[in-house]
Amino acid sequence: MKAGIPLIIFLIFIVLLKYYFSILNNKMYVREYNSLLEKFSSGFLGVGIYQSNFRVGQICLLIIDNNEKIIECKRIKGITVFAKFREVNDIIGMNAREVLVNNKSQAIKLAIENALKEKNKVGV
After folding, report:
1. Integer Cα distance of 77 and 23 in angstroms
2. Which residues contact 119 (CB under 8 A, 6 or more apart)?
3. How much of the chain exceeds pLDDT 70, in percent?
């Protein structure tokens, strides 16, 4: 009976540590989301979240203008808490529909689709 107590304490510690790191990741996401909203008063924000069972997950925040040109794109990719949002410079300035057809990143595709939906809601 006493031999199992350290294992139980260790498992509880791991669960609490995972919870703590998920809170940190959530705060980082909200901070990046809010900074994009403050930086770009015009445009349409799209968020793409892609999670796979066997591959690395991704989150993409993307802003398009009225002409469907990508003006900002940031993506976080990784399985650790040390992953940070990084700019995706190779698609900035490109037409969103062209990137949607040619890009292989599921998170970027989902973000573009969501940004285009927001644009179509407004009717611009």
Report:
1. 17
2. 44, 64, 66, 68
3. 96
**Residue 17 contacts residue 31 (beta carbons within 8 Å):** no
User: Which DSSP category does 69 fall into?
Assistant: B
pLDDT digits (tens, 9 = 90+) for 24-34: 888 999 999 99
CA atoms of 67 and 31, how far apart (whole Å): 27
List, in sequence order, every residue forming a beta bridge with 95; answer none if it has no partner.
69
Cα separation, 68 vs 116, in Å, equals 8
The mean pLDDT value for 74-100 works out to: 89
The position carrying tokens 């199992």 is 4
pTM (two decimals): 0.81
DSSP state of 79: S
